[in-house]
Amino acid sequence: MIRAIGFDFDGTLIMSEDKKGPAMAAVFREKFGVKRGVQKEYENLIGKGYSRNVKVIKLFKIFLKRKPNEKELKTFADHFGEHYVRKMNACPLFQCTNVIKELRKQVKFTFMLSLENTKEVKKIAKHCGVAKYFDEILGGPTSKIDNFKHVITKHGIKASEVLYIGDAHSDVVASKKMGMKIILLGKKHTFKKLKEDLDADFVFNSLCDMPRKLEKL
Q1: CATH number of residue 152's parent domain
Q2: pLDDT in tens, 98-117
Q3: Is 96 left (phi over 0), alpha (psi -120 to 50) or beta?
Q4: What is the rounded distance in angstroms from the CA atom of residue 175 to the CA atom of residue 113?
């Protein structure tokens, strides 16, 4: 029995990870003088479940040969947040809210999860009019696994009663590590191979292709 549904914010509901590369490169260029290569290296970090902070630390080590200090991390977060919120203010690609509405009626609660900063994600969700569909909106710097643990503990449910909807290999790996069910979205995947290798429970091209009734899964 499914009692909770989680929706991956990045890619599933809105801007895919690879679209954040230009914003990441812009911050490194404008604030830290790194003019080339950031976007390509950032793309190599996508799909591994890293939070934004972890990605930034790894990029610092690659391009500046050191770890960032707390002040630099805050500078980066503030500047990236400005780029991110500005880009999202147009509310691009919020997909199939009718599906979210229908699924929400069938479970105890729904949650949105992002690797981006929680405060920024909440602001964007509210601005774009979709915050009302979620009982909880979670994000960074907390890791995806720790956010999953929070959902299970806070709401007193079993991991097997949670269905998570994402679009990346890391979503499948994290969900299965927790013992949760997972729907994998995206035309870019080789569906059969992913079901064999990563054991996704269900695979659909997009959120729009999902059945509106959980009993049909």
Answers
A1: 3.40.50.1000
A2: 888 889 999 999 999 988 78
A3: left
A4: 12
